Amino acid sequence: MPAAFLPSRSxxxxxxxxxxxxxxxxITTDIDSLPEGEARPGALxxxxxxxxxxxxxxxxxxxxxxxxxxxxxxxxxxxxxxxxLRAAVDIAAGPEDGVTVFWGDDSGQGSVKDAAFAKAGxxxxxxxxxxxxxxxEAYHALRVEAGISISGHDYALQDAFxxxxxxxxxxxxxxxxxxxxxxxVVSRMQHRGTARRRVVIVSGEAALPASGxxxxxxxxxxxxxxxxxxxxxxxxxxIDRVGDALARGVPLSAGDVIVSLxxxxxxxxxxxxxxxxxxx
Length: 280
Description:
Elements: E1 3-6, E2 9-15, H1 19-24, E3 38-45, E4 51-60, E5 63-69, H2 70-84, E6 90-93, E7 99-103, E8 112-114, H3 115-119, E9 124-128, H4 136-146, H5 183-192, E10 197-204, E11 214-217, E12 220-229, E13 232-238, H6 239-248, E14 252-254, E15 257-262
Parallel strand pairs: 3-8
Antiparallel strand pairs: 1-7, 2-5, 2-6, 3-4, 4-5, 7-9, 8-9, 10-13, 10-15, 11-12, 11-14, 12-13, 14-15
Organism: Neorhizobium galegae bv. officinalis
GO biological process, one term: iron-sulfur cluster assembly
Protein name: Folate-binding protein YgfZ
């Protein structure tokens, strides 16, 4: 069973009688419908609807676990505490160092199933602490294959909307529950169909250049590379501009490498069929 240890991931635990209601009214994930044994992606947004923090969340007994990048854990904890007010919620850093992921038909003991990878047809489980020595690079290559993005690798915090990173497709963004921070903006984007930036899987005719390299069509940028694994990568692109380029037969490139772009098949999304005038 393939596995990888992710030393850059850390945990936050939320306990107390108000923990569920607290999270339900704050983050993008529908906590009330979250089943035992499942880790769902989620985000805490700015009032303008952009991702301030991204993470995974799952149930643990009567409380919840949030898994996030170690570099943002303390700041996220401070922000959660700021919103806590008088709610009966205890917020504490988990003592575990890192997270281990397993993929394939079996999973490790004490693990939870990752809902985002499940959408992509890849059984993947997550467990606290170091339970295997597998390389982190193998996990990131799997993410690229699946079309699953994370902050710090594929986008900068406060620079992307949940739709941009496919949270609306991975059970990480609810349009059925009540209000939460940034909800009006993302709901309006959903109902008006105005999401124009999306994560795509990039395939190069040769090894792709470094993360951050612009992807261009006819000399005009459509996005930039995020995670890179050989000749495969992820990027957040303007799908209207890509659709226009495809309709006109304009080649796409990243640096000197000719590339093709594909929206993850599991998302059910497609590039616009008709050529449209791209915004400048």
